[in-house]
Amino acid sequence: MALVTLSGAHLYKQVLEVERPTAMAASHSSFLISDPPAVAEAKQAQRTRCLTVLKARDAGVDTTLCARLAETLLATECLRIACVWPLPHEIDLRPLCHQLSTAGRNVLLPDTPPRGQPLTFRLWTPQTSMLRGRFGTQVPEGPILTPDLVLVPLLGFDRTGNRLGYGGGYYDRTLASLPTVRSVGYALAAQEVDQLPTGPYDQPLSCLVTERETLHFD
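That's the 5-formyltetrahydrofolate cyclo-ligase sequence above. Prediction below.
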């Protein structure tokens, strides 16, 4: 793999081409399969609205959300925290990664495998080289570790702990493979949906943090 930096809208388009629900005809894995067609269609309608909200967010809201996440995470005893290195349109958690590392926590970042497999996570530090991953992501050149807590990106959420992802099923597979790990979603308050359509293999969140509040589901 080669050193890389984000290249903007092209990478976002590439992710959607891979992750959109119409690509979900293939099985997630031997124990996770795709959503029924009606559920997939309903999710796609919600994705369109939620993505518009996410991309139109006010400047500075990422900083507020990172501060709230740091408060939540540093109040736990979790040492290995899986974070997310953002794509161009996503909430930027890089300041949070630095804050957690400075506080002595092990920051892990996802390494996206071939489709149908759960994510693996590699150790990141501010000195770690970043390598090109799948679908425009960046991956630290560090050892693979198992997280105690996983931060979960999303496009939408409801107040029962359901999340709306991009459609690739990576985090659902990952959380299913790590049943004792806490899952903390993060989003804008405006990404809330009254009731999300759910499939049989969707994994609910333990907790969700917005720039306004923290919701606990377990």
